[in-house]
Amino acid sequence: MMEKVNAVITGVGGYVPDYILTNEEISRLVDTTDEWIMTRIGIRERRILKGEGLGSSFMGTKAVEQLIERTSVNPAEIDVLICATSTPDYDFPASGALIANNVGMKKAFAYDVEAACAGFMISLMNAVGYIESGRYKKVVVVATEKMSTIVDYTDRATCPLFGDGAVAVLVEPTTEDIGVIDAIIQSDGAGGGHLKLPAGGSVCPASHETIDKKMHYVYQEGQAVFKAAVVSMSDVSVEIMQRNNLTENDLAWFIPHQANLRIIDAVANRMNVKKDKIKINIEKYGNTSAVTIPICFWEMVNDKQLNKGDKIVISTFGAGFTWGAMYLKWGYDTK
């Protein structure tokens, strides 16, 4: 009988821009305060990519370069590169293709996945499928977002929320009992109107009118999104734990999408997970959309907090609405 092949993360690389946008600076742009932002959202600062002609592929390339350096993988041996982004350099070509070219992945086919904040989990599931099928041996998933390009810095409701950054992971096959064990991903287009980029697509192409009406910035109905995120992330996280007979004591870490500290608290309470097992870094980076969960991995690898076999549940929620939870056992010791 053939041994079961699992897909496991074998390396992490990342990049965040140098420029730090503080609450104090935001309070000079709109009528808000550090206290207001911290108590309602939990964000103190976020990274912003500055520089002419620099987009998501610039950050994605930096993240993949660090991944290559850390894992010593040969770029020419990468089979697939999947780029999770809602802020690609262009509508086409794919930012993934640009990144693959930048780092010398000559045989990889590369493409973009647009699933908003859920983009990393969806892309990782694609990678899992490629690896488990036996067709491919080395897949890179890179999440990269330049959210600052779609944020209206005169809108008090949304401008404190988002930041920029990129993280890449290498996914490879293993016959050990580690890697991605289970996942549940769901979507409901009925929520589409609550969180969207109104213009720039085929329904509402760019025009003088769309620019004047500021329709190329994130539109969010905060209360509706908050409520849906808490319910959806809680339900799916509890379901994945029950499905895999996991208790709170089994978990090494719960890593939620970093959109709002109050959402994280509400979901953790529902799951009955203690605070010291929840990875939270929203204070430093804000909501980096598809990058929030992998940026947690990157930070935890850098801080040597992950051990081989650690049982981890990740949970996400984003526009679409699209949400999900994944159970994985970490692939290597970071100490």
Description of the structure:
By secondary structure, the chain is of the alpha/beta class. The chain folds into 2 domains: 6-177, Thiolase/Chalcone synthase (Peroxisomal Thiolase, Chain A, domain 1); 181-329, Thiolase/Chalcone synthase (Peroxisomal Thiolase, Chain A, domain 1, 3-Layer(aba) Sandwich), CATH 3.40.47. 31% of the residues lie in helices and 24% in strands. It contains 10 helices and 13 strands. The protein has a 5-stranded mixed sheet with strand order 1-7-6-4-5, with helices on both faces. It has a 4-stranded mixed sheet with strand order 8-13-12-11, with helices on both faces. The chain has a two-stranded antiparallel ribbon with strand order 2-3. A hairpin with a 3-residue loop joins strand 12 (311-318) and strand 13 (322-329). Helix 3 (56-71) packs across helix 4 (95-102). It is globular. The two termini are 35 Å apart. The mean pLDDT is 97.
The H/E string reads: EEHHEHEHEHEEEEHEHEHHHEE
- Described by the principal axes of the CA atoms, the overall outline is globular
The total count of strands amounts to 13
Q: How would you name the CATH homologous superfamily of the largest domain?
A: Thiolase/Chalcone synthase
Question: What is the architecture of the largest domain at the second tier of CATH?
Answer: 3-Layer(aba) Sandwich
Structural class: alpha/beta
Number of discrete domains: 2
CATH topology of the largest domain: Peroxisomal Thiolase, Chain A, domain 1
Average of per-residue pLDDT values: 97
What is the helical fraction, as a range of percent? Answer: 25-40%
Count of separate DSSP helical elements? 10
| Uncertain residue segments | none
Distance between the termini: 35 Å
* Biggest sheet statistics: 5 strands, mixed
Give the DSSP E fraction (strand runs of 2 or more residues).
15-25%
Strand order of the largest sheet: 1-7-6-4-5
Question: Could you tell me the radius of gyration in angstroms?
Answer: 19 Å
CATH class descriptor name of the largest domain: Alpha Beta
